Predict the 3D structure of the following.
Amino acid sequence: MRTIPALLVTIGLVASLTACASNGAGTTPSSCAAPGAASEAVTATGAFGKEPKVSVPSGLTTKGTQVSVLKQGDGRTIDDGTPVLIEYTLVDGATGEVAQTSGYSGATAPITAGASNYGALGASLECAQVGDRLAVALPKSALSSSSGTTTDTGSSKKTEDAVVAVIDVKRAFDARATGTPQLAGDGMPAVVLAPSGAPGITIPSWDAPKSNETHLLRKGSGRELTAKDTAVIKYTAVTWGADASVAGSSWTDGSGAQTVPLAKGQVDEGVRNAIVGHHVGDQVLAVVNQQGTAYAYVIDVLGAMSS
Protein backbone atom coordinates (compact mmCIF):
# COMPACT_ATOMS: atom_id res chain seq x y z
CA MET A 1 0.00 0.00 0.00
CA ARG A 2 1.58 3.23 -1.15
CA THR A 3 1.32 6.35 0.98
CA ILE A 4 0.85 9.89 -0.31
CA PRO A 5 4.34 11.11 -1.33
CA ALA A 6 6.32 13.64 0.67
CA LEU A 7 5.32 16.74 -1.29
CA LEU A 8 1.88 16.38 0.28
CA VAL A 9 2.21 14.36 3.48
CA THR A 10 3.21 10.90 4.57
CA ILE A 11 1.84 9.53 7.82
CA GLY A 12 2.29 5.88 8.86
CA LEU A 13 0.48 3.97 11.56
CA VAL A 14 2.43 0.72 11.62
CA ALA A 15 5.46 2.15 13.38
CA SER A 16 3.43 3.98 16.02
CA LEU A 17 1.27 0.97 16.79
CA THR A 18 4.26 -1.32 17.00
CA ALA A 19 6.22 1.06 19.16
CA CYS A 20 3.46 2.40 21.41
CA ALA A 21 1.50 1.46 20.60
CA SER A 22 -26.79 11.72 5.87
CA ASN A 23 -24.55 8.86 4.89
CA GLY A 24 -22.69 8.69 8.14
CA ALA A 25 -19.58 10.01 6.48
CA GLY A 26 -18.66 12.84 8.80
CA THR A 27 -19.40 16.44 9.67
CA THR A 28 -20.68 18.75 6.98
CA PRO A 29 -18.10 21.54 6.50
CA SER A 30 -19.16 25.07 7.32
CA SER A 31 -17.69 26.30 4.04
CA CYS A 32 -16.24 24.80 0.90
CA ALA A 33 -13.58 26.09 -1.45
CA ALA A 34 -15.14 27.92 -4.40
CA PRO A 35 -13.95 28.03 -8.00
CA GLY A 36 -11.92 31.01 -9.17
CA ALA A 37 -9.99 32.31 -12.13
CA ALA A 38 -7.01 30.03 -11.45
CA SER A 39 -8.91 26.75 -11.06
CA GLU A 40 -11.18 27.63 -14.00
CA ALA A 41 -8.10 28.06 -16.21
CA VAL A 42 -7.13 24.38 -15.77
CA THR A 43 -8.15 21.72 -18.28
CA ALA A 44 -7.58 17.97 -18.07
CA THR A 45 -8.36 15.32 -20.66
CA GLY A 46 -8.38 11.56 -20.38
CA ALA A 47 -10.40 8.85 -18.67
CA PHE A 48 -11.36 9.17 -15.01
CA GLY A 49 -8.92 7.28 -12.79
CA LYS A 50 -6.20 7.38 -15.45
CA GLU A 51 -3.38 9.92 -15.66
CA PRO A 52 -4.81 12.95 -17.46
CA LYS A 53 -3.18 15.40 -19.80
CA VAL A 54 -3.29 18.64 -17.82
CA SER A 55 -3.06 22.08 -19.37
CA VAL A 56 -2.22 25.04 -17.13
CA PRO A 57 -1.36 28.56 -18.31
CA SER A 58 2.24 29.26 -17.39
CA GLY A 59 2.71 31.84 -14.68
CA LEU A 60 -0.57 30.87 -12.99
CA THR A 61 -1.25 32.58 -9.66
CA THR A 62 -4.00 32.20 -7.10
CA LYS A 63 -5.55 33.93 -4.11
CA GLY A 64 -6.13 31.17 -1.60
CA THR A 65 -7.44 27.72 -2.54
CA GLN A 66 -9.77 27.49 -5.51
CA VAL A 67 -11.64 24.35 -6.59
CA SER A 68 -13.45 23.70 -9.87
CA VAL A 69 -15.26 20.51 -10.84
CA LEU A 70 -14.01 19.35 -14.23
CA LYS A 71 -16.16 16.20 -14.24
CA GLN A 72 -19.20 15.78 -11.99
CA GLY A 73 -19.54 12.54 -10.07
CA ASP A 74 -22.71 11.08 -8.60
CA GLY A 75 -21.33 9.30 -5.53
CA ARG A 76 -21.45 10.20 -1.85
CA THR A 77 -20.52 13.69 -0.72
CA ILE A 78 -17.18 14.15 1.02
CA ASP A 79 -17.56 15.68 4.47
CA ASP A 80 -15.05 16.77 7.09
CA GLY A 81 -13.31 13.65 8.41
CA THR A 82 -14.10 11.42 5.44
CA PRO A 83 -11.23 9.16 4.31
CA VAL A 84 -10.93 9.40 0.52
CA LEU A 85 -9.08 7.40 -2.11
CA ILE A 86 -7.77 9.66 -4.85
CA GLU A 87 -5.50 9.70 -7.85
CA TYR A 88 -3.81 12.99 -8.56
CA THR A 89 -1.46 14.95 -10.80
CA LEU A 90 0.43 17.95 -9.42
CA VAL A 91 1.48 20.68 -11.81
CA ASP A 92 3.76 23.64 -11.15
CA GLY A 93 1.66 26.67 -12.03
CA ALA A 94 4.73 28.75 -12.82
CA THR A 95 5.95 26.43 -15.58
CA GLY A 96 2.96 24.24 -16.44
CA GLU A 97 5.15 21.17 -15.90
CA VAL A 98 3.98 18.04 -14.09
CA ALA A 99 5.76 17.86 -10.73
CA GLN A 100 4.33 14.64 -9.34
CA THR A 101 1.58 12.04 -9.75
CA SER A 102 0.03 9.38 -7.57
CA GLY A 103 1.13 6.74 -10.05
CA TYR A 104 -2.44 5.83 -11.01
CA SER A 105 -1.90 2.25 -9.86
CA GLY A 106 -4.69 2.11 -7.30
CA ALA A 107 -2.12 1.64 -4.53
CA THR A 108 -2.23 5.05 -2.85
CA ALA A 109 -3.47 5.16 0.75
CA PRO A 110 -6.52 7.29 1.55
CA ILE A 111 -6.22 10.83 2.82
CA THR A 112 -8.76 12.33 5.22
CA ALA A 113 -10.71 15.40 4.15
CA GLY A 114 -10.20 18.23 6.58
CA ALA A 115 -7.42 16.53 8.55
CA SER A 116 -4.91 19.18 9.59
CA ASN A 117 -1.84 17.29 8.35
CA TYR A 118 -3.20 17.57 4.79
CA GLY A 119 -3.78 21.31 5.06
CA ALA A 120 -5.19 22.99 1.97
CA LEU A 121 -5.21 19.77 -0.05
CA GLY A 122 -7.36 17.94 2.48
CA ALA A 123 -9.68 20.92 2.83
CA SER A 124 -10.12 21.10 -0.95
CA LEU A 125 -11.79 17.67 -0.95
CA GLU A 126 -14.62 18.75 1.33
CA CYS A 127 -17.96 19.03 -0.51
CA ALA A 128 -16.70 17.04 -3.51
CA GLN A 129 -18.47 13.86 -4.58
CA VAL A 130 -17.11 10.43 -5.38
CA GLY A 131 -16.62 10.38 -9.14
CA ASP A 132 -15.59 14.03 -9.36
CA ARG A 133 -12.50 15.17 -11.19
CA LEU A 134 -11.36 18.36 -9.49
CA ALA A 135 -9.02 21.15 -10.53
CA VAL A 136 -7.51 22.60 -7.35
CA ALA A 137 -5.35 25.72 -7.42
CA LEU A 138 -3.29 25.96 -4.24
CA PRO A 139 -0.93 28.73 -3.11
CA LYS A 140 2.61 27.39 -3.36
CA SER A 141 3.16 28.29 0.29
CA ALA A 142 0.46 25.77 1.25
CA LEU A 143 2.81 22.92 0.32
CA SER A 144 6.31 22.32 1.59
CA SER A 145 8.39 19.82 -0.33
CA SER A 146 11.29 20.09 2.08
CA SER A 147 9.40 19.24 5.26
CA GLY A 148 6.95 16.82 3.70
CA THR A 149 3.99 18.53 5.34
CA THR A 150 1.40 21.09 4.44
CA THR A 151 2.13 24.43 6.03
CA ASP A 152 -1.23 26.19 6.00
CA THR A 153 -4.79 25.76 4.83
CA GLY A 154 -4.48 27.94 1.75
CA SER A 155 -6.86 30.52 3.17
CA SER A 156 -4.55 33.50 2.54
CA LYS A 157 -5.89 36.04 0.04
CA LYS A 158 -2.42 37.19 -1.03
CA THR A 159 -1.73 36.47 -4.68
CA GLU A 160 0.89 33.71 -4.98
CA ASP A 161 2.33 31.32 -7.52
CA ALA A 162 -0.04 28.37 -7.84
CA VAL A 163 0.37 24.63 -7.56
CA VAL A 164 -2.39 22.83 -9.45
CA ALA A 165 -3.74 19.46 -8.37
CA VAL A 166 -6.03 17.54 -10.69
CA ILE A 167 -7.73 15.03 -8.41
CA ASP A 168 -9.95 12.07 -9.26
CA VAL A 169 -12.11 11.20 -6.24
CA LYS A 170 -12.38 7.43 -6.54
CA ARG A 171 -13.81 6.14 -3.26
CA ALA A 172 -14.84 7.31 0.20
CA PHE A 173 -15.18 5.55 3.55
CA ASP A 174 -17.27 6.43 6.58
CA ALA A 175 -15.54 8.81 8.96
CA ARG A 176 -16.55 6.79 12.03
CA ALA A 177 -17.85 3.35 12.95
CA THR A 178 -21.52 3.22 12.02
CA GLY A 179 -22.51 -0.11 13.58
CA THR A 180 -25.14 -0.79 16.24
CA PRO A 181 -23.96 -0.03 19.81
CA GLN A 182 -23.10 -3.09 21.94
CA LEU A 183 -22.45 -3.62 25.65
CA ALA A 184 -18.74 -3.88 26.48
CA GLY A 185 -17.49 -6.58 28.83
CA ASP A 186 -17.34 -6.18 32.59
CA GLY A 187 -14.27 -4.49 34.02
CA MET A 188 -13.39 -2.73 30.79
CA PRO A 189 -12.59 0.98 30.32
CA ALA A 190 -15.52 3.32 29.79
CA VAL A 191 -15.79 4.82 26.30
CA VAL A 192 -17.73 7.96 25.40
CA LEU A 193 -17.90 9.48 21.93
CA ALA A 194 -17.65 13.11 20.88
CA PRO A 195 -20.12 14.34 18.22
CA SER A 196 -17.43 13.69 15.61
CA GLY A 197 -17.11 10.08 16.75
CA ALA A 198 -13.77 10.58 18.48
CA PRO A 199 -13.60 8.30 21.54
CA GLY A 200 -12.74 9.30 25.08
CA ILE A 201 -11.41 6.41 27.17
CA THR A 202 -11.56 6.28 30.98
CA ILE A 203 -9.29 3.66 32.53
CA PRO A 204 -10.64 1.91 35.68
CA SER A 205 -8.71 1.87 38.95
CA TRP A 206 -7.93 -1.85 38.85
CA ASP A 207 -5.11 -3.57 37.02
CA ALA A 208 -5.31 -4.42 33.34
CA PRO A 209 -5.97 -8.00 32.25
CA LYS A 210 -2.80 -10.07 31.96
CA SER A 211 -3.80 -11.34 28.53
CA ASN A 212 -5.09 -9.45 25.53
CA GLU A 213 -8.85 -8.96 25.26
CA THR A 214 -11.18 -7.74 22.55
CA HIS A 215 -14.72 -6.40 23.02
CA LEU A 216 -17.18 -5.18 20.40
CA LEU A 217 -18.55 -1.67 21.04
CA ARG A 218 -20.40 -1.29 17.73
CA LYS A 219 -21.49 -4.08 15.40
CA GLY A 220 -21.16 -3.20 11.74
CA SER A 221 -22.80 -4.77 8.72
CA GLY A 222 -19.91 -4.52 6.27
CA ARG A 223 -17.70 -7.29 5.04
CA GLU A 224 -15.37 -9.25 7.29
CA LEU A 225 -11.68 -8.35 7.20
CA THR A 226 -9.12 -11.06 6.57
CA ALA A 227 -5.33 -11.31 6.76
CA LYS A 228 -5.21 -10.51 3.04
CA ASP A 229 -6.72 -7.07 3.57
CA THR A 230 -5.35 -3.68 4.46
CA ALA A 231 -7.72 -2.14 7.00
CA VAL A 232 -8.76 1.51 6.96
CA ILE A 233 -9.21 2.57 10.58
CA LYS A 234 -9.22 5.41 13.09
CA TYR A 235 -7.92 4.69 16.57
CA THR A 236 -7.14 6.03 20.02
CA ALA A 237 -4.76 4.23 22.39
CA VAL A 238 -4.51 4.98 26.12
CA THR A 239 -2.05 3.50 28.61
CA TRP A 240 -3.67 1.44 31.37
CA GLY A 241 -2.47 2.53 34.80
CA ALA A 242 -2.77 5.12 37.53
CA ASP A 243 -1.11 7.67 35.25
CA ALA A 244 -3.16 6.78 32.17
CA SER A 245 -2.44 8.97 29.16
CA VAL A 246 -3.17 9.02 25.46
CA ALA A 247 -0.39 7.16 23.68
CA GLY A 248 -1.67 7.93 20.21
CA SER A 249 -4.82 8.98 18.39
CA SER A 250 -5.48 9.47 14.70
CA TRP A 251 -8.51 11.54 15.73
CA THR A 252 -6.40 14.25 17.37
CA ASP A 253 -2.93 14.08 15.82
CA GLY A 254 -4.03 15.56 12.49
CA SER A 255 -3.48 12.41 10.44
CA GLY A 256 -7.04 11.12 10.13
CA ALA A 257 -7.68 7.58 8.93
CA GLN A 258 -4.80 5.11 8.80
CA THR A 259 -4.13 1.99 6.75
CA VAL A 260 -3.01 -1.18 8.54
CA PRO A 261 -1.80 -4.22 6.55
CA LEU A 262 -3.18 -7.31 8.28
CA ALA A 263 -0.67 -9.91 7.12
CA LYS A 264 1.31 -11.44 9.99
CA GLY A 265 4.39 -9.48 11.01
CA GLN A 266 3.18 -6.16 9.61
CA VAL A 267 1.79 -4.73 12.85
CA ASP A 268 1.70 -5.67 16.54
CA GLU A 269 -0.05 -9.02 16.81
CA GLY A 270 -2.45 -7.85 19.51
CA VAL A 271 -3.59 -4.95 17.33
CA ARG A 272 -3.82 -7.22 14.30
CA ASN A 273 -5.99 -9.71 16.17
CA ALA A 274 -8.30 -6.89 17.23
CA ILE A 275 -9.06 -6.12 13.56
CA VAL A 276 -8.90 -9.42 11.65
CA GLY A 277 -12.29 -11.11 11.69
CA HIS A 278 -14.18 -7.93 12.45
CA HIS A 279 -16.50 -6.20 10.01
CA VAL A 280 -16.54 -2.81 8.35
CA GLY A 281 -18.59 -0.58 10.64
CA ASP A 282 -17.37 -2.30 13.82
CA GLN A 283 -15.91 -0.38 16.72
CA VAL A 284 -13.57 -2.52 18.81
CA LEU A 285 -12.22 -2.04 22.33
CA ALA A 286 -8.97 -3.98 22.63
CA VAL A 287 -6.66 -4.42 25.59
CA VAL A 288 -3.20 -5.05 24.18
CA ASN A 289 -0.09 -5.80 26.24
CA GLN A 290 3.00 -4.43 24.49
CA GLN A 291 6.53 -4.47 25.88
CA GLY A 292 5.38 -4.59 29.49
CA THR A 293 2.69 -1.92 29.14
CA ALA A 294 -1.05 -2.46 28.71
CA TYR A 295 -2.91 -0.24 26.26
CA ALA A 296 -6.62 0.22 25.71
CA TYR A 297 -7.34 0.76 22.03
CA VAL A 298 -10.63 1.91 20.55
CA ILE A 299 -10.52 1.08 16.84
CA ASP A 300 -13.12 2.15 14.28
CA VAL A 301 -13.05 -0.23 11.31
CA LEU A 302 -13.93 2.02 8.38
CA GLY A 303 -13.09 -0.10 5.36
CA ALA A 304 -10.85 -2.64 3.68
CA MET A 305 -8.47 -2.49 0.75
CA SER A 306 -6.66 -5.29 -0.99
CA SER A 307 -2.97 -5.38 -0.05
